[in-house]
Amino acid sequence: IRSTTVPNVDGSNNTEDDDEDDVVDLAANSLLNKLIRQSLVESSHRVEVLQKDPSSPLYSVKTFEELRLKEELLKGIYAMGFNRPSKIQEMALPMMLAHPPQNLIAQSQSGTGKTAAFVLAMLSRVNTLELFPQCLCLAPTYELALQTGRVVERMGKFCVDVQVMYAIRGNHIPRGTDVTKQIIIGTPGTVLDWCFKRKLIDLTKIRVFVLDEADVMIDTQGFSDQSIRIQRALPSECQMLLFSATFEDSVWQFAERIIPDPNVIKLRKEELTLNNIRQYYVLCENRKDKYQALCNIYGGITIGQAIIFCQTRRNAKWLTVEMMQDGHQVSLLSGELTVDQRASIIQRFRDGKEKVLITTNVCARGIDVKQVTIVVNFDLPVNQAEEPDYETYLHRIGRTGRFGKKGLAFNMIEVDKLPLLMKIQDHFSK
Ligand code: ADP
After folding, report:
1. Whether residue 388 has its Cβ less than 6 Å from ligand 1
2. Rounded to whole angstroms, how far apart are CA atoms 394 and 424?
């Protein structure tokens, strides 16, 4: 019988394939979060607004009608199933659609409606009679650019004369081509190339400039400087918008450098609680026994969608193989996979093709699994000192108070790990 934490003969705790890549790929996480999420993240906090001109009236809207949008745009919004503006959109949209245009820096956690807001702003400012780039959106990666483009296409479904083009590596445009698409979405390097070297885009004609995922952007070597070079060439009347899910000092400094005279909107992140979660543990002898316990509840957990967490990559692999051999339809989300492969696994899980996702801490770190109602800790999260990792436990299982769905959590505990569980219990008083 092998336990997950039996040290190697040399005394170290790690086996060669257990230490997952410790570098958190922010862009990959952001993409996976977009894929795993199916609806708006609600918030009980108030939106904080800092106006560049505090004496000007502050508008907020409760309906999309109040925004006096073009009819085909309003139709697109409703076709996406949006009934009313999200919390951040209530404040941001009136500023973004104002005349004369106002610049904006907006920060709120992912899933709160930022992308939808700036896509709306871009679509509303396009002049369809003019066939040249008018809106420019910078994204950190090819995949994220495509995701934004999909939103443009969905929301702009009835704006038949509006077209999108991707300035991303691999999209080869012959020299001398006349770019007639009004909305360009791309990564900083390629956009810079298209603007300055290849002269495909005339930056002086851009009306709306969006810098999305600023926190991810500044994390990537060279992107800040490239973005600033692009921004410097924009006309002064161009509307400049910056979005970020987080707001550390570094993001803030970058935002202030790149967005002149901004209004600022912030929405605090919703705290996680364990209040709506029923937590159980199953006491087991060993790993085989944990596996049996999991099989016993398997029929029940696959009524919904479930995520099973293992402590190591090796354990996750073992569990996946066992379950598959027993004929269960599960998939393994592992750090070894490429972003595309992980995205496709998440998409299949989202679509219900697999009901159970097996993963590790590291792989799932930063991914918002809160839409999933059933979580199984096949191993408890522990840190390197083999103490409980409370934060990870809360992140796996916790939900946001008022809006979070009710959830179920099962912990499979080997007898010798019971003290860890008791510490977790004490820590959360649950
Ligand atoms: P963010 O850019 O902050 O991550 P998104 O704009 O991608 O957020 O929105 C998150 C999810 O909520 C998406 O699935 C989007 O379609 C949906 N959404 C956005 N705005 C609204 C709204 N006003 N009403 C309902 N759903 C919305």
Report:
1. no
2. 10
